[in-house]
Amino acid sequence: MDSIMEASIIWNKHPENVRFWYSSWKEETIYLRINNFPEESLYTLISKSKIVDINDLPEEWIISLR
Known about the structure:
The protein is mainly beta. It has one domain (2-56). It has one helix at 2-6; strands at residues 10-13, 20-25, 28-34, 43-46, 51-54, 62-63. Strands 5-4-3-2-1-6 form a six-stranded mixed sheet, with no helix packed on it. A hairpin with an 8-residue loop joins strand 3 (28-34) and strand 4. It is globular and about 30 Å long. The N and C termini lie far apart (26 Å).
């Protein structure tokens, strides 16, 4: 997961679920979910192999609002 956190990723809004963004990384679709902050972490990063809660997004990530 550390390498995802260090990568330059452009996130796209999920077409069916407003709480999710998605992107491709190393031939895998990964997801970023916005949570119920402050009761939960602000975001959850979801890949095939791991689920990680995060509060601060890496500067290299670009979140599309469209």
